[in-house]
Amino acid sequence: MPRKFSIICIIFILFTMSCNLFDDNENDNGSISTETQFEDDFNDVSINESVWQIATWVEHDGQTGRGRCYSENGYLNLVFINDSAEGYLSSAIQTREEFLYGRWEARLKPSSVPGVLNSMYTIDWDDGDGTKQEIDIEFLTYTFADNSGEVHFAVHAVGLNSFNTNPDIELDFNPSDDFHVWGFEITPLYVQWFVDDLILLTYTYSENDIVIDSEYQLKFNFWSQENWINGPPVENTECIYQIDWIRFYPYVNEN
Fold first, then answer.
1. Spatial separation of the C-alpha atoms in residues 191 and 68, rounded to whole Å
2. pLDDT of residue 255
3. Which of 42, 91, 112, 254 is the most exposed place for a label (fewest CB within 10 A)?
C-alpha cells in the first residue's frame, strides 16, 4: 500500500474516532424513569425525620426552628415571622438522602405576604466542603400582584459564573393564589425548570460555566432580608409557605 494512502487512511480513522467521542459526549442516551425514587405526601401527623432534617440553626440572619416546620392537614408548612422581640424567625427543611440526575416535582403554594422568599433548591455543602453547587427555584413575594408575578431561577457554584441569562421569569398568574406543580429536571446535559409541565427555562452546560456533576440534598427554606427580597414583612405577621407533596424520578442511563 503506498505510504501516502496509508497516512490518509490513518487520518480518516482518527477523525472518525474523534467524531464518535464527540457524539458520545453531546448526546444524552438516558431518560427520566416513570418510577419514583423518593416521595412524600406529608399526610402523616408528624414529619418523617428519618427522611427529613428540620433546620434548627441560624441562616440568612434568621433563627430556624422546629416549631415553624410542621405537617398539618396533608401539607408541609414552613413559617416565617418578623418577630418584634426576637427578630427574624425562619424555617428550613432538607432531605437526608443525596441525589444526582432526575426530575423533581413539588406541589407548592408560596406565601402571599410581601417581603419573604420561598425556595426549593439543591444544596451540596457536605459540612462546608462540598462544591456549593445549587439549582434554585425562588419566589420573591414582593413581585406578586393580581394575575401576575415572577419566579427566580438560578444555578450557582463557588468560583464560577452564576446563571446570567436574566432568570427572573414573568408569570401570568400569582403563584400564591393556588397550588401549582413546580420543579426542575437535571440531566448530564442540562437543567430545565417547569410549572404544571410547561417548560419555562433551559440551562445547557455546553453554553455555560457550571456543570452539575455532584450529589446534593433537596431543600426548602423560608426567609427574608432587606436587599433583593424587599423585606421584612410587617412585624408579627405569620407568613406560611405550603408544600402539598414532593416526588423525585431518577435519570436512567440507557447505555
1. 31
2. 64
3. 254
* 121-180 pLDDT, tens digit each: 999 976 666 678 899 999 999 999 999 999 999 998 887 766 554 579 999 999 999 999
Q: Are 189 and 204 in contact (CB under 8 A)?
A: yes
In the chain, the domains with their CATH numbers are 29-253 (2.60.120.200)
Beta-carbon contacts of residue 88 (< 8 Å; ≥ 6 apart): 60, 61, 62, 63, 80, 81, 82, 223, 224, 232
| Cis bond before residue 175 (omega within 30° of 0) | no
d(CA 143, CA 100) in angstroms, rounded, equals 31
CB of 69 closer than 8 Å to CB of 37: no
> Cα separation of 255 and 252, whole Å?
9
Nine-digit cell string for 132: 456549593
**CA 75, CA 77: separation in Å to the nearest integer?**
6
188: its cell numbers: 448530564
Q: What string of H, E and C letters represents the secondary structure of 31-66?
A: EECCCCCEEECCCCCCCCCCCEEECCCEECCEEECH
CB 119 within 8 Å of CB 141: no
Give the global pTM. Answer: 0.86
Classify the phi-psi angles of 62: left when phi > 0, otherwise alpha if psi is within -120 to 50, otherwise beta: beta
CA distance 4 to 131: 50
Cα(74)–Cα(44) distance, integer angstroms: 7
Q: Is 204 exposed, middle or buried (0-12, 13-18, 19+ CB in 10 A)?
A: exposed
Give the three-state DSSP class for 23. Answer: helix
